Amino acid sequence: MEAPEITRSHLIYFSSTSENTRRFVAKLGIGAARIPLYPRDNPLVAAEPFVLVVPTYGGTGGEGSVPKQVIRFLNNPQNRKLIRGVIGAGNTNFGDNYCMAGDIIAAKCRVPHLYRFELMGTPEDVSRVQQGLEEFWTRLSQTQQ
């Protein structure tokens, strides 16, 4: 196994080959680190608290909703310890499974599911997430002093 890639980014995301989540994160204009797509890639390890942006994969009843790469990333205790929130991406065509990966991760990691957006997000989603993250990190830093 290769040496892990250490990130100090406060925004970590996973994007499949569709690149929808990557395009959304790029529009935010915030430095972000991407969870590797392939198992052969160096694993990503967080060195600072972060918010995770994760797409939901199709699947009934939530089965298979969380991408395997994200599960592998969160199975690292260091990464799990530093997650502070999750933003879910999804497709409303999934019905009840819309942004379910965010719900599952928020429940398992006991962090808030901060926001949900569809596919690549709208300009309104982008500005709401930018503003929301700024407020979130400000509030978090005030409570940890």
DSSP helical segment count:
5
Helix content: 25-40%
Shape: globular
Give helix and strand order, one letter per element, not per position. Answer: EEHEEEHHEHEH
By helix and strand content, what is the structural category? alpha/beta
Residue fraction in strands: 15-25%
Largest sheet, in brief, is: 5 strands, parallel
From the alpha-carbon coordinates, what is the Rg to the nearest angstrom?
14 Å
Rounded to the nearest angstrom, the distance between the terminal CA atoms is 38 Å
Low-confidence stretches: none
Average pLDDT over all residues: 92
Task: Spell out the blueprint of helices and strands.
Elements: E1 5-7, E2 11-13, H1 20-28, E3 33-34, E4 44-46, E5 50-55, H2 68-74, H3 77-82, E6 83-90, H4 100-109, E7 113-118, H5 123-143
Parallel strand pairs: 1-4, 2-3, 2-5, 5-6, 6-7
Helix pairs in contact: 1-5
